[in-house]
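The protein record filed below.
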Amino acid sequence: MFGRKKKQAISEPTPRLVPQNLGIIMDGNGRWAKKRGLPRQAGHVTGAQVFRKITKYCEKCGVKYLTVYAFSTENWKRPQEEVDAIMNLLRQYLKESLADFQQENIRTRFIGDRSALAEDILKLMREAEETTAHKTGMTLNIALNYGGQQELTAATQALARRVQAGEISPEDIDEEMLGAALYTEDQPPVDLILRPSGEYRLSNFLIWQSAYAEFVFMDVLWPDFTEADLERAFEEYARRNRRFGGV
């Protein structure tokens, strides 16, 4: 785990090795608010602001794919008041991002089970995807009602239906075919998983995609996360010797 260094001003990113596919578990919003005597919702509001700032910075750094863990399949277990606040914040974000990200070369996609989401949120999600589909820069995956186990289950069921329909045989199913049945079907494996907040768990995030990913855990709550913290994570990533099972 990394302790925090003194904050440094970050202007424009400088050329260096950065992960092409980055996953971020945005953790610590509730604890950030509790430390300040604020309702948990206040942490989510500040965390959403940090998300937008870090997303833009990642695109400028040359990250090609960014996946952020916004709401997991397990987060429905939280108090209803908090779930409602998160969903209302999502609505606000989607409306604002349609305008805010227009100047950015960022393509927005949503991964996860959409069946439990409200229709107005689904409409905003479709609009965000459609209006950015032509972008050629970084792809932003927002993991919403997402769980790695749920994703693998859904992919397996889809392949089983193809076998049942006679389209493929069980022997045809290999790693490539299963990977193509995931939400991230056309994207490369994840290079780096970053988790602020001091926790050391993957928490059901990108289980298949992160098989050979590097991990960086940082002792900073997400609402306090800065571009300087991201740069420190990139520096650590650049020092790793990635052997992918070799020597």
Notes: Residues 168 and 184 are 21 Å apart (CA to CA). The helical segments are 29-35, 40-61, 80-100, 119-132, 148-164, 175-180, 227-239.
